[in-house]
Amino acid sequence: MTTATTDTLAKARIAVLGYGSQGRAHALNLKDSGLDVVVGLRPNGPTWHKAVADGFHVAEPAEAVRGADLVAVLTPDMVQPTLYKQAIEPNIKAGAALLFAHGFNVHFKQIEPRTDIDVILVAPKGPGALVRSEYERGRGVPCVYAVHQDASGHAEEKATAYAAGIGGARAMLIKTDFKEETETDLFGEQAVLCGGASELVVKGFETLVEAGYQPEIAYYEVLHELKLIVDLFYEGGITRMLEFVSETAQYGDYISGPRVVDAATKERMKGVLKDIQDGTFARNWIAEYQAGLPNYKRLKQADLEHPIEQVGAKLRARMAWLQSGAKTSQAPLKKVG
Ligand code: NAD
Ligand code: MG
């Protein structure tokens, strides 16, 4: 628990732009915290009806921004610069706050906000569905927060009040800055979470299959069972994982882990980090997006066609527990950013 409260925003009108993973969770939690929320969306866009059904006043982004004291930008990162130019910059009040849940566009100067507004960041360390479900249980998901620009003299209070409104202050607030949030977030998803983990799994699968083992067995050993390990990491770190695996598995971990992921891997991780820090990654990604995603589509197709996906689909169809009930994929984790 922290001492942050929603007081600073008690009389504020909050416009939440975007009603996806984060937007819906933030809007509902802020409303349930007693704050005045309007949702800004493209007319008849995919989530307009959902926001109306949830009881919100929904308006076009420009209209939602007019009169708002805090504007939370919770659309996909790549559409934010145009949204800022068209709907926010001409309409946001002097002294109002512009809030992001990821620092990408501000840090890499794709959005250069007007100097008469506050620019802040509140990023929950979890997917939107968890931000909502924890709030409903009277708890919250820890948040990082930051101030990029303080025009009103109250930017930090607004950030912590917003974090309190979405429930984060019930858990923990960690102060950061836009640079740290952006660079660490990109590094984590590239080197470890999405890129690193998926490549490790695929290379392990290929190694076994090329050595003549059955793909079905390989799938279970290198992909399926990863969940057990990740759950242990999540609950109690590497300590808990080591407590729950056999002595043989532990010995193999100590001897073979550093053979696979070694000092050379770490050097290449540093290369990934350098490309993030010096703006190379951002520049390439923005150019790729503007060109209509040609490489992104090609690389994605190759991932989807990999044999591990063919065998995986067949095996998962026989896992009855996956055919019913809530899946993580209905509570999307971070997409880009
Ligand atoms: P999302 O893709 O789930 O939802 C996007 C929403 O924006 C949808 O409601 C969509 O209809 C709407 N939208 C799209 N284009 C629009 C436009 N031009 N104008 C108005 N609305 C538009 O997005 P998300 O994953 O919730 O990400 C939102 C922000 O939160 C991003 O900055 C992201 O980096 C950040 N973030 C996400 C997570 C996560 O768990 N998903 C975690 C931390 C931070
Ligand atoms: Mg991959």
UniProtKB/TrEMBL annotation:
InterPro entries cross-referenced by the UniProt entry:
6-PGluconate_DH-like_C_sf (IPR008927), KARI (IPR013023), KARI_C (IPR000506), KARI_N (IPR013116), KARI_prok (IPR014359), NAD(P)-bd_dom_sf (IPR036291)
Q: Where is the active site?
A: H102
Enumerate the residues binding Mg(2+) 1.
D185, E189
Name this protein carries in UniProt? Ketol-acid reductoisomerase (NADP(+))
According to its UniProt record, this protein's enzyme class is oxidoreductase
What NCBIfam families does the entry give? ilvC, PRK05479.1
Single Gene Ontology MF annotation: ketol-acid reductoisomerase activity
Catalytic reactions of this protein: (2R,3R)-2,3-dihydroxy-3-methylpentanoate + NADP(+) = (S)-2-ethyl-2-hydroxy-3-oxobutanoate + NADPH + H(+); (2R)-2,3-dihydroxy-3-methylbutanoate + NADP(+) = (2S)-2-acetolactate + NADPH + H(+)
Keywords, sorted A to Z: Amino-acid biosynthesis, Branched-chain amino acid biosynthesis, Magnesium, Metal-binding, NADP, Oxidoreductase
Q: Which pathway, per its entry? A: Amino-acid biosynthesis; L-valine biosynthesis; L-valine from pyruvate: step 2/4; Amino-acid biosynthesis; L-isoleucine biosynthesis; L-isoleucine from 2-oxobutanoate: step 2/4
Per UniProt, residues of the KARI N-terminal Rossmann domain are: 1-176
Functional note: Involved in the biosynthesis of branched-chain amino acids (BCAA). Catalyzes an alkyl-migration followed by a ketol-acid reduction of (S)-2-acetolactate (S2AL) to yield (R)-2,3-dihydroxy-isovalerate. In the isomerase reaction, S2AL is rearranged via a Mg-dependent methyl migration to produce 3-hydroxy-3-methyl-2-ketobutyrate (HMKB). In the reductase reaction, this 2-ketoacid undergoes a metal-dependent reduction by NADPH to yield (R)-2,3-dihydroxy-isovalerate.
| Binding locations of Mg(2+) 2 | D185, E221, E225
Source organism of this protein record = Dyella flava
What sequence ranges are listed for the domain KARI C-terminal knotted? Answer: 177-322
Tell me the cofactors it needs.
Mg(2+)
- Identify the EC number(s): 1.1.1.86
Cofactor binding annotation: Binds 2 magnesium ions per subunit.
Pfam short name (any one): KARI_N
